[in-house]
Amino acid sequence: MYLSTIGRREHPGGVSKKSFALLGGNVFALGTVSLVTDVSSEMVTAVLPVYLVLGLHLGPAAYGVVDGLYTGATALLRLVGGYVADRVRRRKAVAGLGYAMSAVAKLGLVAVGSSAAAIGVVLTADRTGKGLRTAPRDALITLSAPEHMLGRAFGVHRAMDSVGAFLGPLVAVAVLAFVGSSTGIEGFDAVFVTSFCIAAAGVLLLALFVRDHRAPKPPSGTVSLRAAAGLLRGTGVRRLLIAACVLGMATIGDGFVYLLLQDKEDIATGWFPLLAVGTNLGYLVLAAPLGALADRIGRLPVMLAGYGALIAVYLLLLSPLTGWALFALTLGLYGVFYAATDGVLMALAGPLLPEALRTTGIAIVQSGQALAYFASSVLFGLSWQFWGATTAIAIAAGTVLAAVAATFVLLAPRRKARP
Amino acid sequence: MNTRTRVLIAVTGVLTLAAAAVIYVGVAGARNQDTASAGTSGAVTLDGPRLLFRSTADADRGHVSSVAAADPGGARAVSNLSCSRVYAAGGTGICLRPESGLTTYQLAVLDGRLTVTQEIPLVGLPNRARVSADGRRLAWTVFVTGDSYNGGRFSTRAGTLDLTTDNVEGTLEDFAVTVDGKPYKAADFNFWGVTFTRDPDRFYATMSTGSHRYLVEGDAKARTARTVRDNVECPSLSPDETRIAYKSAIDGDPAKGWRVSVLDLASGTVTPLAETRSVDDQPAWLDDHTVGYALPRTQGHSDVWAVPADGTGAPRLLIPEAESPAALRS
C-alpha cells in the first residue's frame, strides 16, 4: 500500500514541520472570529432547551415544531451564498453578512417573546447566517495559506473554533449564576444579550482584521452557473463530492451518540451538554496536530483514520463497557473523529477547486455532506425505532466501514505507471 | 486604514460591547435579586376555596401565590417559594424547580403550609405537574433529551409518586399498552400530561407514538394503559369525573396551534370551548363548569383565563400575571 503518500503534497522546499508561524495572519484572524462567534452561538445552544421548556413552558409538540423548523432549509442558501461570493468576488462580505445575521438573531430571541413560531423563524435566521458564512470562510482559509500547509491552516482554524464551542456553555452558566436565576426570563435575556454582544464583537473583528482575497478579475464566463456545473464534470471534484456524501451518510449525528450514551448510563439530563463539551475538548486539543500530521503523511489516511475512530465510538456503544471509562473513551475518540476529518476534508478539497470557483465548490461539497448527514440521521432514527438501538448501531458501524473503503477507492491517487 | 487605527477601533468596539453586556447582566442580576427575595413565609397555604398559581409579575416572578376563588382579581398572597411549575390538591402541593444552576431539577412535595417535605431528583426538564384530588398521588412530565436544538428529537417521560407507599414510577413507558384494544409495542412511546381519577390508581394521560397523540386510560397498580381516543393532549379530568378538558392540535398539526375542548366520557361527544386562541397548556378545572388555562402575553408574562366548559360564553381574564392554575377546594 502507498497509503502514507496518498493526498500528500510533495514539497522539497524544506519547510519546517512545525511552522505554524508561516500560516498567514488571515488564518488566525478567521480563527479568532470563529472562536468569538462560537462562544456566542454555543451559549444559546446550551440554554435553549431550558428556555423553551422552563422559561416559556412550551409543551412537547411545540418543542418538536421549533426543533424541526430549520432542518435542511439552509442547504440551498449555502449554495447560493457560495456562488454569489465567487461571482462578486467578495467572500469576506458574504461571510460577514452571515455572521451579522446570526448576531442579530440573538437579539431576536429577546424580542420575539414566547411565540413558538416566531422563535422558529429567529432560529432559522440564525442557521441561515451559519449556512451563508461557512463556505466563504473556508474558501478564504484555502486562499490564505500555502497549499502544502492547508492541513495545518484548517487544524488551527478548527481548534480555535472549538475553543469557542468549549467556552460557550461555560459563559452561559456563568451569566446565569451571576444573574442568580436559572429559569427566570431575566437570566435567559441576559444570556441572549451577552451572546449578541460577543457575536457583534466577532463581526467587528472580521471587518477590521480579515483580508478579503481578491485575485484579479477572472475572464468573463469563468464564474457562471455553467462553470459551476462544470465543476462536477471534473473527475477530481466529482469523486470528492461523492466521497463527502458517502461519509456524510455514515455519520449518525451527535444527538444520537449522546442519547445512546445517556441510554446506557441514565445520567442526569443536566449533564447532557457536558457530553458535547467533552467531545469539543478532544477536538480542540487534536485539531491542529492532526492537521499538521495530515500535511506530513497525507490528508486521506488521516481522514480515513478519523472514520476509524468513529467506528470505534459505535463499537464502544455496543460494548459491555460502562462507567467513566466508557464516557472518556467514547468522547475522546469522538473528538479524534472530528479533529481528523472536519478540517482535513476541506484541506483535501481546496487544491482541487479552481480559485475563481472555490467558494462555490466548497459550498457544493459541504451541502452534499450536510444533506447526506441529514438523511442518515433520519434513517438512523427509523432503524433505532424499528430494530432497536443495538442493531441500529451495528448497521451504522458497518456503514462507516463500507464508506471508508469506498472513499479510499474514490480518492486514492491513480498510479501513473507500474514500477 | 493602518494597523494602529484598526487595533484602536477594535479595542474600543470590543470594550464597548463588553461594557454593554456587563451592565445588562448586572441590571438583570439586581432585578432578579429583588424578585428572589419577594414573598412572605406562611402567606400561602393550601386551604380553599382559593386559586393557587405561579406568579409571572415582575416583582415576584416564579413565586407560588394564591387569590380568593370568589375574587380572583383581588388581593394576592405571595409565598417565598419559587417554582417553575406548581399544582396542588387535597392538601398536597407539587413544585417542579431547578436544583442548582443549569444542571439538575427536582420535584418538591409540599404540605399544606408549603413546607417542602420531600425532594426527588428529576432526570429531565420539568414540564407538567398534577396531584390527585385526595392529595396522595403526584404526577409530572419531563423532557429527557436536554439536547441541543439542532440534533435529535424531543422525548418525554411522565412519572408518578404514591405518597402512601413512597413508590416512584419513573416512567410509564414500561406499562403494557393496548391501542384500539390490541397489545402494542413501540420504541417511540412518549407519555405526558397525567390527570388522576378519584381512584388514585387510575389516571388519564397523553401517549404519543408515530404521528398519533392518544388519550390513554392507565392503571398504576396493574401497570397497563389503553387508548381511548386520538388527537388528545394534556387531559384534565373534571371534578365530577364525567368529562375531560384537553388540547388538540388543529387539523392534527401542532404547527397550527392547539384548541381546548371538552370530551364527554360517557357519550364521546366533543365540545370545542369558546377560546379560539392557541392554548399550549394542560387545562385545569376551576369547578364543574369552568376550565382555566394559562396564555402567554409577552415574554415571561402569562395570564390565567377561564372559559365555560359547555362551549358557550366567552373566555374571560381570571388572574392577570399568573400561570400553572390550581383550584384549592377546601
TrEMBL record, chain A:
Topological relation to the membrane, as annotated: Multi-pass membrane protein
Source domain of life is Bacteria
Q: Where in the cell is it found?
A: Cell membrane
Q: Where do transmembrane segments lie in this chain? A: 20-37, 43-61, 97-123, 159-179, 191-210, 240-261, 267-288, 300-318, 324-349, 370-387, 393-412
- What Pfam families is this protein classified in? MFS_1
- Keywords carried by this UniProt record: Membrane, Transmembrane, Transmembrane helix
Q: Name one GO molecular function term.
A: transmembrane transporter activity
A Gene Ontology term for the protein's cellular component: plasma membrane
Query: Which intervals hold domain Major facilitator superfamily (MFS) profile?
Result: 26-415
Q: What is its main location?
A: membrane
Q: PROSITE patterns given for it?
A: MFS
Query: What PANTHER family does the annotation carry?
Result: C-METHYLTRANSFERASE, MAJOR FACILITATOR SUPERFAMILY TRANSPORTER
Q: What is this protein called?
A: MFS family permease
From TrEMBL, chain B:
Please indicate which superkingdom the organism of origin belongs to.
Bacteria
Q: Gene3D superfamilies this protein is in?
A: TolB, C-terminal domain (2.120.10.30)
Name assigned to this protein: WD40-like Beta Propeller Repeat
